[in-house]
Backbone:
């Protein structure tokens, strides 16, 4: 470091450092703009002003806490990476609420802390911002485009999703029927919620008479904020309230976003009262979405609530068969079975694995074999190697039905003991890569045919008895997490 600088030199030095930073920053901005698009860039990133560098860290300022949090979660990593690429000495980006650095911009900005509301006022000359935001809004359609690949035809139906599928079809055929409005679809990640929503949308817009608006809850919030900023909330409301079908995906995103929730609630009511259809998806059922306002939760549960369960082995096989057939690349049944056994988390990952196999086969002109599969998917398979042990399974199942752990290997055949034991065998088959004889040995040296029988019996029972199926699914989820 240099010695003590006079006041004047300090300012001059700060200025020249700042000039250099400004050049880097403007380059980063152009890249960001190209990457995220004009609207996102203007709404979020353009509000950033650069602050001082301290060691390997640069501070970036945003006018409100809301903006800061948003930029941090959405773009934090990207900003660090871009700064690091520009200036390797910078390794970290600190985002904070604050004004631009006063040394360089003595006029400052009127950025005041806006508290925790999700819709916060933004500093700057109001007229400019309003004009800017308005022209952005008008340039962009209200809704996100529908993915033409997500249709009812390409959706493979099986036990875990047949109810949700039937409801979706029904809404697509006769929107706004009593009892089906709203349609609330829920289930874990990658199980087909978005696919079904797009399928409804595509089906309904095919005739050209029905107007459908599909958007993620996140997008809904973003549009809403942009409307507030451009003082065009009336237009926003009118636009939304003029559609025949409104679909909001991943509603759980609105948890904690009280203002946006409130707006959604009013839109929701206005549409339903006007006989329009609403379709909503979330990762949990309305009653389990804690953090959502009670009145909204109540209304969401008023129509049809349909859940998509975790996939079964059978469904995974059907999906793989259908996607393999569509690709035109022959994939041996053994490979499909292998994948369906190994990748149980969700359809998206299953699809990703198959796509990679197919791309590989096309690229190298080699047939898909089990060996090639293990090789090509090495990393994915490793990540999915479930480390749950048979002992763990036995313990959890015994706890669940309140039996003694020793009964997992005892010879007792009373139903109260035999049934949980069968469930544990079934889960051992599903969740570990152990063979039937290996599993049998862990259950008091039973024969592999006993395990086979247990798997078949539990599968059959799950189909007949939904309460039992739920128990087993719950155990599976607990063991998998
Ligand atoms: P979610 O919205 O529930 O997270 P998606 O609808 O995005 O899940 O589904 C993830 C991927 O899996 C998509 O590519 C989708 O087409 C596919 N997918 C999910 N379920 C099925 C199914 N039953 N049949 C065919 N493809 C499916
Ligand atoms: Mg989705």
Residues:
């Amino acid at each position: 470091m240099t010695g003590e600088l006079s006041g004047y030199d300090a300012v001059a030095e700060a200025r020249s450092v700042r000039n250099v930073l400004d050049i880097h920053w403007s380059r980063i901005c152009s890249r960001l703009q190209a990457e995220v698009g004009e609207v996102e860039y203007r709404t979020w990133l353009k509000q950033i002003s650069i602050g001082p560098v301290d060691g390997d860290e640069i501070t970036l300022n945003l006018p409100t806490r809301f903006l800061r949090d948003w930029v941090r979660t959405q773009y934090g990593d990207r900003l660090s990476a871009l700064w690091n690429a520009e200036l390797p000495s910078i390794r970290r980006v600190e985002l904070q609420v604050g004004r631009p650095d006063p040394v360089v911009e003595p006029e400052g900005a009127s950025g005041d802390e806006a508290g925790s509301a999700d819709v916060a006022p933004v500093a700057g000359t109001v007229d400019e911002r309003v004009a800017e935001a308005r022209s952005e809004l008008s340039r962009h359609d209200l809704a996100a485009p529908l993915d033409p690949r997500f249709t009812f035809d390409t959706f493979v139906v099986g036990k875990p999703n047949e109810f949700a599928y039937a409801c979706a079809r029904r809404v697509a055929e006769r929107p706004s029927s009593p009892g089906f409005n709203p349609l609330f679809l829920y289930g874990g990640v990658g199980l087909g919620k978005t696919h079904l929503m797009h399928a409804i949308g595509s089906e309904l817009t095919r005739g050209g008479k029905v107007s459908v608006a599909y958007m993620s809850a996140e997008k809904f919030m973003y549009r809403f904020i942009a409307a507030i900023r451009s003082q065009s909330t009336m237009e926003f409301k009118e636009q939304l309230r003029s559609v025949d079908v409104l679909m909001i995906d991943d509603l759980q995103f609105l948890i904690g976003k009280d203002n946006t929730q409130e707006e959604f609630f009013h839109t929701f009511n206005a549409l339903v009262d006007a006989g329009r259809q609403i379709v909503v998806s979330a990762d949990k059922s309305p009653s389990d979405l804690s953090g959502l306002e009670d009145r909204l939760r109540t209304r969401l549960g008023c129509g049809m609530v349909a859940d998509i369960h975790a996939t079964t082995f059978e469904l995974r096989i059907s999906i793989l068969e259908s996607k393999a057939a569509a690709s035109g690349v022959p994939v041996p049944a053994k490979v499909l079975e292998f994948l369906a056994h190994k990748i149980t988390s969700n359809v998206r990952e299953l699809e990703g694995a198959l796509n990679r196999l197919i791309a590989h086969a096309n690229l190298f002109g080699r047939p898909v074999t089990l060996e090639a599969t293990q090789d090509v998917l090495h990393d994915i398979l490793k990540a999915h190697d479930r480390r749950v042990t048979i002992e763990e399974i036995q313990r959890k199942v015994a706890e669940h039905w309140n039996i003694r752990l020793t009964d997992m290997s005892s010879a007792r055949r009373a139903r109260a003991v035999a049934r949980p034991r069968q469930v544990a065998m079934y889960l051992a088959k599903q969740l570990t890569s152990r063979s039937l004889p290996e599993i049998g040995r862990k259950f008091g040296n039973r024969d592999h045919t006993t395990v086979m029988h247990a798997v078949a019996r539990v599968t059959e029972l799950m189909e007949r008895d939904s309460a039992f199926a739920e128990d087993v699914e719950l155990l599976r989820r607990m063991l998998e997490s």
